[in-house]
Amino acid sequence: MSDGHGSLPETPPGWSAEQPPPYSAPPASPWTAPGSPQQGLAGQPYEQAPATPRPPYPGHPYGHGYMPPPPALRPGIIPLRPLRLGEMLDGAIKLFRSNPKAVLGLSAVAALVVSIPVAVAQGFFFNSATIYTDPVNATPDDVYGAMAGLFGGSLVSLAVQFVVVTILTGVLTRILGRAVFGGTMSAAEAWRLSRGRMPALFGVLGLMAVIMVAPLIVFVVLVVAVVVSAPAEMIGLVDLVVLLMLPFGFLYYMFFKSRFAFAPAAVVLEGRGPLDAMRRSWRLVTGDFWRVFGIVLLTWVLCLLVSNIIGFPFSLFGTAAGVLGGTTAVTAVVSALFLVVGYTLSAMLTYPFEAAVAGLLYADRRMRGEAFDLVLQTAAVEQQRQGWVHESADDLWHPSNSAGS
């Protein structure tokens, strides 16, 4: 909703739009006794609690009279306490279900824009390359021209992806920040609240790209220089060195991807600048690096698997159409359409899933390191008392509300 309120029943007749109606307001004190039944925002129940406390019994490992702690509040997509891995993955899926129009709609548009350059280049490749239709008569110029078009389209797609995914990450992070409290947000409202942070977000991703890509460029230049000047018998050794360096390059990329995983959230939700957001992410990851690294790596693997499973049939049909259809304009169009549909369907699921897991991991690190769960729980109780999720809940993510400012 563009007015900043959560997904709640319509305002009854006779009530002012500025004044929240008494949606079954709880008793005078918003705090309830441990074990008592509670009801979440917008009719969503908190994690299941017994209707009456269990009586103490002897023989419990914690001694006679032990009572289990009350369940954590869960007004939105996650329980308001430090999260387990399964709860992060589940929360990312719940983000889809709680706000499907905004999340999937924005992701589909982003994926479609990114897929067009690759599809056009692929169509050009099949329309012009005789290496498939007439490989015997194919000349080196035919091969180089087709490959140049294919890789040129991929580079253009990467540049477009950098811009589009940057915007999408900022908007989805804003939606996720509200969904933690059980509120929803339209795509228009998410863009209105996020657009002022886009320059800082581009600054973060630009710095990350320099850190991750600069060593790769230096390595490629060195390899090319060695290949040009080395004797023929040394080429095999150079290939072996390149092959051995691939896993180190991947680990280098994943190290900094994990270290700066929370920088977009720090920009959008905390209002920080690029360098400050990257320092903030580095500090949050410190002390729990291997856990963050493992979750980021697992998320990347899951997204890669889902993307390949969904996109493989379309890629197969597109390639078959390009190879069997000959070098015609119709073949190029059909091949490009298959690739666009496959990439869009896969990316509209993987883009928001990866952004959601990163956002929830950011919330988990703040709850573990800054007791931020107490801030979220206090706010959730007050919002339950009022009966709605106002857009002022977004301000709770500011670092002044935790011990980590």
From TrEMBL:
Which UniProt keyword terms apply here? Membrane, Transmembrane, Transmembrane helix
**Does the keyword section mention Transmembrane helix?**
yes
Q: Which residues cross the membrane?
A: 103-126, 146-172, 200-228, 234-255, 289-310, 316-341
Annotated Pro residues bias: 19-29
Residues of the region (Disordered) are: 1-65
Q: Residue limits of the DUF7847 domain?
A: 84-347
**Could you confirm whether the keyword Protease appears in this record?**
no
- The organism's superkingdom is given as Bacteria
Pfam families linked to this entry: DUF7847 (PF25231)
Q: What is this protein called?
A: DUF7847 domain-containing protein
Query: Which species does the entry assign this protein to?
Result: Nonomuraea maritima
